[in-house]
Amino acid sequence: MTETARPFARRRRRESQQEEARRTLAECLTQTRGLIAQAYQGFNAVQDPDLIESYVYEINALQSRYSYLLRRLKELEE
C-alpha cells in the first residue's frame, strides 16, 4: 500500500511546487507592471534628453522582463 501512495505524494509535492512557482511569477509580473508604470511616469515628467534616453532603456528592459515572466507563467500553466 505504501508503494502506491508514494507516486501520489510525489505528484502532490510537484503540484505544490508548481503552484508556488506560479504565485512567485504572478507576483513578479505585478511588480514589473508597477515598475513599468513608474518608468512611464518618469519618462513623461522629464525633458532632459539624457534622462529621456535613460527612461527609454529602462522601459525596454522592463518590458523584456515582463515578456519573459509572462512566457514562463504560460509554460507552467500548460
Uncertain parts: none
Number of domains: 1
Strand content: under 5%
Q: Could you spell the SSE succession in H and E letters?
A: HH
The portion of residues assigned to helices is over 70%
Shape: rod-shaped
Largest sheet: none
Mean pLDDT: 90
How many helices? The count is 2
Query: Which structural class do you get from the secondary structure elements?
Result: mainly alpha
Radius of gyration: 20 Å
Number of DSSP strand runs:
0
Q: What's the N-to-C terminus distance?
A: 31 Å
Brief rundown of the structure:
With 78 residues, the protein is an all-alpha fold. The protein has helices at 2-45, 49-77.
Blueprint of the fold:
Blueprint: H1 2-45, H2 49-77
Could you explain how this protein is built, in words?
This protein is an all-alpha fold and 78 residues long. The protein has one domain (2-77). It is built from 2 helices and no strands. The protein has helices spanning 2-45, 49-77. Helix 1 (2-45) runs antiparallel to helix 2. The longest helix is centred in the first third of the chain and has 44 residues, at 2-45. It is rod-shaped, with a radius of gyration of 20 Å. The protein starts with a helix and ends with a helix.
